[in-house]
Amino acid sequence: MRLPLFQVDAFTAVPFAGNPAAVCVLGQDLDADLMQKIAAEMNLSETAFVQPVGVVYQLRWFTPKVEVDLCGHATLATTHVLLSEGFAASDSALEFDTRSGRLRASRSGKDWIQLDFPTEAPYKSDPPPEVIAGLRSQGIVFAGRNRWDYFFELESEDLVRRMEPDFALLGSATERGVVVTSRSDSPGFDFVSRFFAPAAGINEDPVTGSAHCCLAPYWGERLGKTTMRAFQASARGGILEVETRGDRVLIRGQAITVLRGELAV
Questions:
Q1: Same domain assignment for residues 94 and 132
Q2: Which CATH number belongs to the domain containing residue 138 in this structure?
Q3: Which of 53, 62, 124, 174 is a plausible cystine mate for 39, CB 3.0–4.6 Å?
Q4: What secondary structure does DSSP assign to 173-199, as a single string?
């Protein structure tokens, strides 16, 4: 079996920044165990498997270690591949059936893609001491979580950027990940963040679309805004625009293909 395979840098307009994702376009069902092996072989934070089923697409996401319920950057990468590589009309509005329900994606202007995701706002919660210890950070303003991740606001962007967590400890104390954020001190951005997910096999995710399902409602309430510009301050870095609309979050970003190939399995 030979399958079209692409590697896309998501939430960036230039190669080798943003978050890389592999996108495998399927013409038939593939066993989940094989998908997991392919994701381990790709060794990226996420590998997406997309298959047309009638007028919608079935979409699944795998880290090198586990299947996940929601992934923003790999959905952005998948949409980019389908629209730019001829699998769908370039002006199509796409719908995906996923483990997080029906998701929608479309072009936004000439160079951006918009994702329509559910909100996952954080609620105040006392995290386990092991999570606090694993962060190895001071200046916590807010501690909470949503159904997937622990969530922390820090006093400053500098504290967010300088964090050096204990990944072994975080991996043993969490189920998926930890979102860390602050107001932005950098011109042009409303807030910054980082995302750590050693329990899912990713010490630090370069740019995490799904984390902004939590970040957008949190900062929207505090800043009194519905539309915001965000920067994920990983080593690669990524730029996102987010917009809150009731129980949905619109996440906008750019993407660029860096590899086209064929997977032989």
A1: no
A2: 3.10.310.10
A3: 62
A4: H-SSEEEEEEE--STT-SEEEEEEEGG
d(CA 188, CA 184): 9
Q: Indicate the number of domains in the chain.
A: 2
Active-site position among 41, 46, 120, 262:
46
Distance CA 262, CA 60 (A): 19
Is 0.90 surpassed by the pTM of this model?
yes
98 and 209 together in one domain: no
> Are 37 and 24 part of one and the same domain?
yes
pLDDT in tens, 79-97: 999 999 999 998 889 999 9
**Residues 209-220: pLDDT tens digits?**
999 999 999 999
Q: Is 46 a catalytic residue?
A: yes
Burial of 94 (0-12, 13-18, 19+ CB in 10 A): buried
What's at 149, amino acid-wise? D
- Here the tokens at position 245 are 């609309």
